[in-house]
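Continuing from yesterday's entry. The apo prediction looked reasonable, so today I'm repeating it with acetyl coenzyme *A included to see how the binding region is handled. Same sequence as before; SMILES copied from the compound registry.
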Amino acid sequence: MTMLQDPSVKYRPFPQINLPDRQWPSRTITQAPRWLSTDLRDGNQSLIDPMGAEKKTRFFDLLVRIGLKEIEVGFPSAGATEYDFIRGLVDTGRIPADVLVQVLTQSREDLIRTSFESLAGAPEAIVHVYNAVSPLWRQVVFGLEKPQIREIASQGAKYLRDQAARFPQTKWHFEYSPETFSTAEVDFSIECCEAVMQVLQPTPEHPIILNLPATVEAATPNIYADQIEYFCRNLPNRESAVISLHTHNDRGTGVAAAELGLMAGADRVEGCLFGNGERTGNCCLVTVALNLYTQGVNPGLDFSDIDEVIQTVEYCNQLPVPARHPYGGELVYTAFSGSHQDAIKKGFAAQESRNDQLWSVPYLPIDPADLGRSYEAVIRVNSQSGKGGFAWVIEQDQGLKLPKRMQAHFSRHVQELADELGRELQAGDIWDVFRKVYRIDEPQHFQLLDWDEGRAADGTRVFAGKIGVNGQEQSVSGRGNGLISSVAATLRDSFGVALEVRDYTEHALGSGSDARAAAYVECVTATGAVVWGVGIDEDVATASVRAMLSAANSAAR
Ligand SMILES: CC(=O)SCCNC(=O)CCNC(=O)[C@H](O)C(C)(C)COP(=O)(O)OP(=O)(O)OC[C@H]1O[C@@H](n2cnc3c(N)ncnc32)[C@H](O)[C@@H]1OP(=O)(O)O
Ligand SMILES: CC(C)C(=O)C(=O)O
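Holo prediction written out below.
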């Protein structure tokens, strides 16, 4: 038998960066970075069907509404769709005064010329030039040595300078990306950036944006952070550059890399909403922004109606936002499992009684309401659920706050249905079982025919009513708090139904003109069986009598 070679021998570990005195691990992010959305460029170039003008315009308007102040609107030299859309933005005055649009181009004269022409006349804009600098691209894609690669960068900068001079009415900003930075020698990336800076002569007042892409994510995010810190520490004239991050997600850590990159000294983050982009996508701007938000840092981006954002993004990209995507996914605030539901339900109750500003609910790192999500969908019921789950659903749906022991009593019925159906139970399913188990809609054996109550001269409550069974009527009356025991005594003495009352709870239900009351009573029959009765009526007293009769009806079956 021949031994198969371990296929992992094809790969090598990524080399460490020599930075023994790295500072980033002990830093925290205390303010929002500058954000750039590249949805309309890096996102768009990765789509099966790239967006047309209608979708691009819709996406652009969304980005403006969210609060993006820098938006890469396309790659104008790619073709007429891109060019016309960008020109259209400028010519129709659609770009708000506080928003900078950006375009991307290779470092080629004809493409750079077209790029400037697409934006000419805008009050202010960024032109972004890139060329790949890492060994594999140098060898395989360009077949060039380092000096010639540096020359592509430098030459690109000259084209930028010269084309900018053609359109002096626009205030031009420049961005340079040593593409494939993450897999390049950092010193060589610095060399290329320096060459570009020598041509463009940035100043602290008019800095260049140096964008350091993890074009292909090739190592753990700490390595990227080391690369960024090393770059920031060794770049001459650092104060004349805005250091920008552009991470991809090949190893699934694009967001982590961007966060560590900010700790390592970067000022700006490029990415896409919900992480669209080449292959596994770009860094997700929603996640990075809301990660900051949950640390008490205002990201300056508005996701308070996240479902509207998702709707537009899904429409424009023609790709779904996965149900488990951080912050936005359909299921990320939903607990199906019993112990999670129990903890969340308790967390909401504790949050309500604390009534302070701080959010602190188990299993929910962010208040779903901050993103426009309702609490109703937080807990959903299936066969993995516990009593906290359906109790929450009944409370949200019907306003009924079932006592704990009644939840346990009802639980087995819900569990049986969930097992039988083998699917999630909707609020309507749970309410149907509830009505069936507690016979809410069935013809009642013991009926409340009449009820009246008032106050005696000394202020004590007095009540009198009539219970009917098969045409027979029996009066019940009493005073004080003995209502439940008076009804229980009448049931026992007049109808032979012996019930020992174990538990009794009541609460107000609804408010204003809908105000009612709910009451729940737990009884034990002569044979030791446990029965629960539920009463819902206009006032607590009537609801209580109904609860007691409901228990008697269950016992009488
Ligand atoms: C990491 C990124 O996402 S970078 C952005 C990538 N986005 C896009 O490419 C989308 C838009 N691009 C396009 O529509 C087209 O590529 C165009 C119109 C820009 C150019 O098309 P073409 O002229 O056919 O060239 P093509 O795309 O095949 O590029 C390959 C050539 O450009 C050269 N090239 C690639 N990148 C660069 C660069 N940054 N600067 C200069 N030359 C470059 C290659 O070496 C190759 O040259 P060769 O033909 O002499 O071998
Ligand atoms: C052009 C650069 C910024 C890029 O998209 C990448 O490297 O992923």
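Comparison notes:
- The mean pLDDT is 95.
- The longest helix spans residues 146-166.
Will overlay with the apo model tomorrow.
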